[in-house]
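Why Initiation factor 2 subunit family protein? Reviewers of the renewal asked for a concrete example.
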Amino acid sequence: MDLRERLTTSKEDFDDIVLGRKLGANSNISSIIHMLRDIAGQVEQGGVTGDMGRQTAFALTEYFDEMRGDSSIAVRNAIGRLMEPVRAEGLSGREFASRLVESCDAYEYESAHWNEKIVACAREVLKDVGTLMVYDYSSTVNAVLQDAEDWGRDIRVYIPESRTLDGGMPFIRNHAGSNLHFSLIPDCAMAYYVVLCDAALVGVETFCGDGGLYNTTGSLSLGILCREYGVPFYGITQFLKMDRRLSEQTPKKLEEYDMSQVLGVAGVQVEAGLDVNCVGIELVPPKYITGYMTEMGYLTPTQAAGMPSLN
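Here is what the prediction returned.
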């Protein structure tokens, strides 16, 4: 089944995930919701049968669960929530489409409510901060910066390039013309600049059961630097990203990716057998984390580990 060809208005969303054009679990979930709305709309308008729409929706979500679910529990949990209302057998095409749209509406409303609480929490925790370091793009962290911008805060924000994913530039593009003051720096300069910061922020790819987190490679380096220099290191996340199976003692198996483009050796003749693979995410144990800003308020790693997960 060519899933992309089954879509009409959301092919770009499909490509955004497959080609890695948009970073972050929330962006991926938003694209999946757009695709599910597209499928529901086709059923409602009679472009495809209910059976065909149902088949496509489940095949699509299973495809993206396999692609992104292992690395991002948030994507897996969101897909489960989105598809649960349409798993019942015997739904007519119209019932299927209606339930799918209602499920997308409910998820978006709930997620927006969570994010409002996270931003409010961050506003309070960071109220006296004048200088931040923010590592790797996260839509939730971006929302915190947007809130600071909207409130007219005078903050210097150091953005390491996050070279493995080019995860620094999306912040710069999203805040062009901002009253915030941005500095884009090489990853290798984090130690020099972090001592100038009042706090460091990272998003969370996966939230571990012991209060640790997985995030883009480089996050652990920043956590170690923050601990060494006494700079608070905060994770910003929804509890949807909690995977209680994971901890420092029971880590996830990490994939390595070809970094030849990142390292500048793509297409260049190099020594045979040169290894250019590297992990894309890494574990930051709870001992390096000061606290979390969540929809349940501010929590230390110990407090977070004791909270009920949403999955």
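Residues 93-125 form the longest helix (33 residues). This is the kind of structural detail the renewal will allow us to pursue systematically.
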